User: Fold these one by one.
Assistant:
Number 1:
Amino acid sequence: VVSLRSQLRKDDLPRIEQILRANRTAFNDVEVATALEILEAGLTSHDYGFIVAEDAQGLLGYAAYAPAPLTHGTFDLYWIAVDPRRHGKGVGRKLLRAVEQDVQARAGRLLLIETSGRADYSRTRQFYESAGYARAATIPDFYKAGDDKVIYARRLDPKEEDRTPPRAAA
Ligand SMILES: CC(C)(COP(=O)(O)OP(=O)(O)OC[C@H]1O[C@@H](n2cnc3c(N)ncnc32)[C@H](O)[C@@H]1OP(=O)(O)O)[C@@H](O)C(=O)NCCC(=O)NCCS
């Protein structure tokens, strides 16, 4: 049984580092170091949100996100990673849904995700697309020549009908 937790603990960090390093096709050393800096900062700051997925064996994956500076209600997903031995079993989807719920609880209305357009990221892009994210922009050659940045977006604001107050009983 996979459960979720939104409180990041210091003793999660070594296991998260293992998971990031195990996903070495997705994250290079600099990216792992950046992810760890965000986690360290998150232990003492409330600016970031974290969701951790775990089961009886321990931590399986995590997601990190934060409000986008200078916006009203836009959030960025910074990082999502699942233990490669557990890929394709719904853990990533569970994490992403929990992020969306927390973003909505913080009055967020738009969640953005940046990823690479490289061929070896096609499963990652497929993951976002099947989770309801639309390709909002592509910046050609952003990461390096031939490596585009693809920005995915999902609107999380309540639908018009949900915003209409219930009619008073006659
Ligand atoms: C992308 C990632 C977070 C998805 O988590 P997950 O638990 O494997 O995904 P789920 O099981 O919830 O969803 C499965 C869908 O994700 C996609 N997917 C992406 N990577 C996959 C992988 N390695 N194995 C299986 N499915 C994968 C598929 O489209 C799959 O759909 P399908 O089941 O219809 O084939 C995870 O694969 C991962 O950590 N990848 C490496 C790190 C990464 O790329 N992070 C994002 C950086 S921008």
Number 2:
Amino acid sequence: MAQDNKKSEHGWGFQDTRFIVHPDRSVELTGGRYEICGFRMPDFIPFVENTLGVKVDPNDLHERNPPSPVAAPRRNTAFMDALQAALPDARTSEEPAERLVHSHGQATGDEVYRVLYQQLPRAVDLVFYCCDELEAQTLVRLAHEHDVCLIPYGGGTNVSGCLQLPENETRMVVAVNTQGLNKVLWVNKENRQVCVEAGITGRDLELALAAQGLTTGHEPDSVEFSTLGGWISTNASGMKKNRYGNIEDIVESVSLVTPTGQLETLHPFPRQSAGVQVRPMLFGSEGNFGLITKAVMRVRPLPEERAYQSVLFPDPERGVAFMYELSNSSYVPASIRLVDNNQFRFGLALKPAAGVGGRIKSQLQKLFIQNIKRIDISRMAVATIVMEGTAREVEVQQTLLSELAAKHQGFMAGAHNGKRGYNLTFAIAYIRDFLTKLHVLGETFETTLPWDKIHSVNRAIIAETERIHKDFGLPGRPFISYRITQLYPTGVCVYYTYGIYTRGVANPGQVAIDADHRLRAAVVEHGGAVSHHHGVGKFRHDLLKKVLPAQNADLVMALKNTLDPKNVFGVQNGVFFRGS
Ligand SMILES: Cc1cc2nc3c(=O)[nH]c(=O)nc-3n(C[C@H](O)[C@H](O)[C@H](O)COP(=O)(O)OP(=O)(O)OC[C@H]3O[C@@H](n4cnc5c(N)ncnc54)[C@H](O)[C@@H]3O)c2cc1C
């Protein structure tokens, strides 16, 4: 039966997929899209209770309020008339529900919580559904002529406040939904290049390419919903970047429609020395410069073999030492992620009830780990691995990884666990909305750390989480965990996930916003990057200001003024934030 791919309106994911709780307190992920769908997980609520030190009442759900009212749209009638005359067939909408959807991304406290439980300060005035480049050029020209603000909208999955409307914007604001720009325009198999329209989602792109035996290899956790234009704009990174590169390695040229004309970056050669280039300045442009309409991307043949593996380490320190040595080798797998003990236990809590056989097996495994391997289960860290290539390449990687793991007292824990761990990410994305209903608010944010800062920043973030908990007088204990997801010779990308119980707390949404900001600030203060790939948006502009040399900001501003002198693309992300 064909799946209904309707997206959830404001929360995460597909409408047919959500966590529910049964009267016996087990939880279940509905639908059949992911490996963990369709069975009862009895350990999850007890895990939440033990970790947060609170009693959760599954009957006391924090259900969303009816959709918050949206103020009547501002209308620039001269613009609306000109738009109607120039593009009579274009689809537009002033429906409150559609405008609301296009006015936020997926950040927890500042966006999803506000939409579902409170109210957004303002929504876009019109949604324009863009279907081709000519339409884009006409729309941008008219917005420039009539002083209208345009905000490009891809999949709406960013988590940096990139789609939040600037409070000081007085003009009519139009969200430009790009999902009609979704065609693969050409494929050159010999040169391993494709030209793709920017509104295509990762899922549709990969399906179209797979039919031709190709892949971009770009696989962010949001691949089902995020778009090519969004990836370029936020400077995204996929889980398999070790093999395929980050988005800036995959995209070779970009077309951008701006108020001063169409910007084409140089011809997409594999590499070229042609003076200063504009292309790199579009990665991370966050909707401030224009509308990206298409790009040329590198593709590779689908790998002959994909294999999974997992490694258990006695503690995170030995896991990191393994990753450090691996990062200097030539056999880094397509993806390798090291999770700390808290995240490992989180994953275990999402398992079905074991039968008698399963309980015995799990007890034996525990005894083996504790008594034979002499590992303290409460400190154990786990790496999940994806290898891609020819069968022989994968075989060699397996052997070398196993040898390196043994050197760091790790031991291989099997392909099944590796596959489960890798794919769990897609399903775990749904848990945020479920936990919010259980009065648990949380967020995941990332950074880049040099090797010599990993442990000290992790300690600082754990300490800051505890301070935040105390300062806000929150019930129970906080949850904080980390995972290393991307490797570089000089350092790593680390994700932190925190959770707080907010039953009985006044204004929980604001507490979550303040906690997010304090944690992100602590990362930078202790030597981490502003962001590895989520970008700056509205949430990290003050942190960027602290680290960005003034001349750098001036240069970016000069580019903006050249491309968009009247600030049509007035979303005000990153250095352009003018805040209230
Ligand atoms: C569960 C989850 C998992 C995630 N996993 C990852 C991950 O693994 N890796 C990663 O990098 N990120 C990840 N993200 C963050 C997010 O998916 C990325 O930032 C993504 O690149 C945003 O793409 P989008 O199409 O949704 O853009 P949107 O959210 O719609 O927009 C983001 C910004 O880009 C601008 N923009 C969008 N399209 C265009 C265009 N055509 N032209 C000009 N500007 C445009 C918008 O104006 C906005 O400023 C995740 C988010 C969630 C919620």
